[in-house]
Amino acid sequence: MRWNARAYDSSFGYVSAHGAPLVELLDPQPGERVLDLGCGTGVLTADIASRGASVLGIDGSQAMIETAIAQHPGLDFTVGDGYDFTVAQPYDAVFSNAALHWMSRDPEAVIACVRMALRPGGRFVAELGGAGNCAALTSALLTAWREYGLAEPELPWYFPTPAQYALRLEKGGFVVRLLEYFDRPTPLDECPNGAADWVRMFAGALLDRVPPATVEPLLRRVNELAAPALRRESGWMADYVRLRFAAVRH
Ligand SMILES: C[S@@+](CC[C@H](N)C(=O)[O-])C[C@H]1O[C@@H](n2cnc3c(N)ncnc32)[C@H](O)[C@@H]1O
Predict the structure, then answer these.
(1) Tens of pLDDT along 210-225?
(2) How far, in Å, from the CA of 147 to the mean position of ligand 1?
């Protein structure tokens, strides 16, 4: 997945803006070592650092990391893969906002890397999309693809139920201390083209396989299909569902 870091910050800043309660749950302490997994452009990494913690942001996207370094010159960022990263010295906490559901290929490998990155007693505090996340958006997408005779796209996300993810955490060597599963309807205030803008940002890789002349009408159809569920008088509202947890390494 190629990320457009500029569009991410300008139109989808709500992702990190909604991360503030997760930073509160992490409750970073001065001097603590924290790793921010899938840090994106580093907005929450900087928030954690502002509490006095020493933070490393890692992300699989070179574009995201370049933007993070440019926007937060005093902080440490590096390109790294959530499925396969190691650290020289263990961390007190691993934090992750809106990134784990992108690591859909092998969630167990991600949890194993997080465990290895933590000291015993270290905490894993994260939020990801939960089962049913963006269901109306993805259903509109799949229907539009079908109507246009396109091959059914493989969606890139993993949206587990609370029970599924808790089991993975326990099997992966963590004690789950808190697990919340909640709807978070999210205004797409900076997305004048509503669901179509969301698809371009988060499912852009699927559009690469669509004939160029079909992209615009296809996205218009996504909007028509999604509108009854997601379009309000005040604007578009995405049907986000979140899974937020705090777990401790054995
Ligand atoms: C929606 S963004 C969230 C960014 C940031 N945490 C925030 O709250 O704004 C998801 C991030 O996960 C990163 N990501 C996806 N798969 C990854 C992987 N396998 N390893 C590391 N980062 C990954 C993406 O590059 C992207 O920056």
Answers:
(1) 999 999 999 999 999 9
(2) 31
